[in-house]
Each structure stands twice: as C-alpha cells, then as structure tokens.
Design a protein that fits this description.
globular, four-stranded antiparallel sheet, 12 helices, binds ligand EPS, Chorismate synthase, AroC fold, 16 strands
Length: 404
Amino acid sequence: MIRFLTSGESHGKGLNTIVEGIPSNLKITEKYINDHLYRRQQGYGRGLRMKIEKDTAEIISGVRFQKTLGSPISLFIRNNDWENWTDKMTPGKRTADIEKITIPRPGHADLVGVSKYNFDDIRNSIERSSARETAARVAACSVVRKLLEEFGIRIGSFVESIGNIYPDDNFAERLFNNDLPPQFNAWKLACEADKSPVRVLNGKQETRIINKIKLVKKKGDTLGGSFYVIATGVPSGLGSFVHYDTKLDADIAHTMMSINAVKGVEIGTGFNSAEAMGSSSHDEIIRKGTRITRKTNRAGGIEGGVSTGLPIIVRVAMKPIATLMSPLEAVDLSSMKQVISRRERSDFVAVPACAVIGESMLAWTLASHFLNKFGGDSIEETRDNFTNYQNKLFDRLKSNFRKN
Ligand code: EPS
C-alpha cells in the first residue's frame, strides 16, 4: 500500500510531503520532480504569486545515489513568499497590528472553514485551503509517475475548454474512437499541450481563449474550464469489481475531485453515454494477434472498475477561480452586515495548471492499484511480477477456455 501526506500553509515556510510504500531501487532525481513542478506553475492567466515562486523540491530522505531506499521519501518545497509573510504567518507570538480577515469570499473555503474550525480570522482557513498545496502533491506524485514510466505507463493531459471556448476538432473523439497511431503515448500529448500557454492542442482555440482571458481580466472576473487526463500503456487488470472501494474508476473520481475547484469528473464518454444507445456506447471486443482488445474506447479504459488495457480517459471540470477583482456580495462577520467581498491576490485562470495536477492525481491512483496488484519491495521484484502476469495473460485465457 502506498500513501502520501502533505503539510504546509500557502504563505508559511514551505510545503512538505512524505511518500510511503515506494519499492527500492527506483531511479529518481530532484530534476525529474522539479520539471513537473515547473509545469504546474505555467499557464496564461496565473497571478503574481507564480512570479515570486520558483518551485523546487529538496529530497530530505528516502533516496540515496538517485535511487529509492524503500523508506519514506520526504520532500520539501520552500515558499519564497514566506519572507514577506513572516509576521503574519509566524508560528510564534502574534503581534497586535496583524489585521484579521472578517469577510468571506463566495466560492472559497473561507466561511465553511471559520465555522467548522471555530476561527476568529479567515486567514487561518485560507492558508491551508489554498491551491498552493497542490505543489506538494505534484512533487509526491512525480515519484510514482517515475515508477509507472518504468513499466511503460505514460500520463498526459490537455485543456479542452476555457470560458466555454472549445476546439472545432476535439481530440477526445479520436481517443474514444481508438483512432491513434501505435506509437501514441500520453506524455507526447502532454508535451504538445505544454507548448501552448493555455495547454490546448489547437492554435485558433488558443488565440480565442487568450483574448477571452484578457477581456475577463479587465472586468475583474475569472474563468474555469475542462481538461482531459489520459494514461497509456496501462495493463489490463488494475482495480476490481469485487467491492466499492476497490474500483479503479471510483478511485480516479475521488482523487480528481479532491483537486481544488474541481466540480465534475467523467470517465470515457461519461455524461454523453447517458444519452446514447447501447449499440453506440459500448466497445466491441476484437482479437489483435496475442491480445484481446476493443475496437473503440468509449469506456475510457475501464470496465467494471477494472482497467481494460486501453488508454484511461478522464475528463475534469474546473469551476472559475473564486477570488474576483470585482467581488460578489458577502457578509462581514465583524458587523454581520451585507458588504462587497474582499479582494486577495489570485489567479484569473488556472485550468492549465489544474490539468498538470490532474496528471499527478491519476499517476497516484494508477500507481496505487499497480502496486496493489504487482507488489514488490524492490523495483526488480515488481518487474518480475508484472512481466510474469503480462506474458501469460493471453495463453492463460486460451488454455482456460479451450474445449477438450
Ligand atoms: C497558488 C498559490 C496562491 C494562488 C493560487 C494558487 O498564491 P497566493 O494566494 O499567494 O496568490 O496564486 O491559489 C488560489 C487561486 C486559491 O484559490 O487558493 C499556487 O501555488 O498554485
């Protein structure tokens, strides 16, 4: 079983994560982790914070000579902005002149946070509920992303829409139709998307989105959008149908939904399949050499909670950023009067970054099911188990069903 914890406030000293259960002898470097942290920081429409931070993870433990030791891997990301916030965020004594925040912003965890934790300052809520925490997730999940790569599993994402601007040719259709060259892999797709400041695959759409972000920014408003996260090279057999908490699709929905501002998750054709007939919804089964596979991939690579061996296709909806420069109404908790809500430095759009975080969460979920199935204290042991299963899959099916 693998698990990770994160700790850290948005303007505290930094973010910590401890990743546990990773087999020994997996090659990993700070550079590998930092390359993914860099990807999370990009995107047209981000706020000023991303200019202050140059997120890099320091490996504190669990790795020696660039290989995992099987012990907990601890990573630390320093917040450069801490220097500007030491008085306001000190774990030490409060100085009298630190102003309390009393007006909650609609759409944030401000009001629920102060109510639930019995705070007298909304700052106490803002700090941990901030999407800054996702930097620690990306760092933690980069370790398992590296593990999956050892087994040919690649993960990528692209932005489908921002502010209701969609491409004329949605790449997702090709994924559902299984209309992809054999060398297609999800990481190549991610690299393609990374070339765009809004991580879309279509130049015309990119220009329209950037223009819309500029307009919305002028109005003091924000935007959300949707993105796809894909994994290729996933073996069949991850997850299970035996219980609600062993299903791969259920776990993916859980981890995606856990990302700040995510409001919807679909696997495969998702909500569209509710409107289609069975005949245009399911994937016919075919034989390709020593593989039994599917003609199409509308199921998004999962049937009955178990991976089919086809690409995992996840679509995610992110709501618009909740901090508005032209704020909505709220109640000032110090006077209990109706007021205009507060402004706070924020992003205008963070869908491109959210897609990178989605990649990280998918990597985590897949790695968790992968190691549940193949186990291993060392990467070599995991590989033996994996290879054995993969090599025998077709022959086992054939011999099990052979008529005497
Ligand atoms: C973020 C850091 C935050 C925000 C953003 C994401 O920094 P700050 O609050 O200092 O500007 O830019 O967080 C949110 C939009 C949010 O709602 O929490 C980051 O590192 O990604």
